[in-house]
Design brief:
This protein has 319 residues and is an alpha/beta fold. The protein is built from ten helices and 14 strands. Bound molecules: S-adenosylmethionine.
Amino acid sequence: MNLQFHDYHPQSDDLRQCVMTGFAGSPKQLPPKFFYDEEGSRLFAQICEQPEYYVPAVERSIFETHAADIMRSLALDGRTLIEPGAGCGRKVRFLLDRASAAMYVPMDISAEHLRSSAQRLAADYPHLPIHAVCVDHTQPFTLPDEIPVAGRIFFYPGSSLGNFSPVEAIGFLSDLRNKAGAQGRLLIGIDTKKSVEVLNRAYNDAAGVTAAFNLNLLRRIRQELAAEVQLDGFSHHAFYNEPRGRIEMHLVSRRDQCVRVADRRFEFKAGESIHTENSYKYSPQEFQELAWEAGWDSDKVWLDPLHYFSVHLLKARKG
Ligand SMILES: C[S@@+](CC[C@H](N)C(=O)[O-])C[C@H]1O[C@@H](n2cnc3c(N)ncnc32)[C@H](O)[C@@H]1O
């Protein structure tokens, strides 16, 4: 098999430290990267099948409608394709099926999920060298030496960039710009601003999968940190914060209660929340301005007819 696995996995005390700091703060918060243990990754795949969560279907429709133009503009043949937060590796197949990439580099924080998806891809694309990199891309990291610097193309679909604040997003995109080199490109999916009703429905699916995904964070904390926390003591709350242009996801305490982690006790008042995720939405122009700040020039943008989602091709700005 043409597959190598590089494990730069975050230290095991990362979750403990973030919980200790995040539960002690006001408001209480946790970074969304901890959603993605094995169960969280499985639940995210299920979210992508919910009818209310339009992102995967609309993004896919943009790729299908504009396939020829996207592939021509991307010019992937003979180049290295690098995908941060690659997840189950489903979306990249669209690109790999239509061009001869020289190498594919899926990156993800979720080790087992990454390993199994990379193995499936290696079996289906036996001639494609694959370097899977388990890494927390919110921390400084270096790509393995085997990844050629010339001809790097980054692929970041699904509007995962929305989980960063705009300032963090510029930092992350600048890092990709530096890693991409002078001829670098970035193909990125960005969710747009739209009606509050559509957005609120998308993060509150009727089957309760997004709620289960959010609550899974507490199960993970209970399991990995031996924390004393009642899962039925919290409920899922997600809403579009229009002035800030972002979906906010929270776990709201149903009652006054105490959560114990190691030797620390954290008091929760009824109605107090743990802020678990933001998902920023950008108009195409807002995103192009943000990308410009990070050293990327806009090359092309594709949208669906309702302008629910955008796919941008960016080129590294010279100098
Ligand atoms: C919202 S999912 C998107 C998955 C896929 N790219 C898609 O578009 O459907 C985010 C993915 O990024 C990974 N991820 C989240 N935070 C990460 C981090 N800090 N470093 C590396 N991977 C991360 C998760 O494990 C998950 O696979």
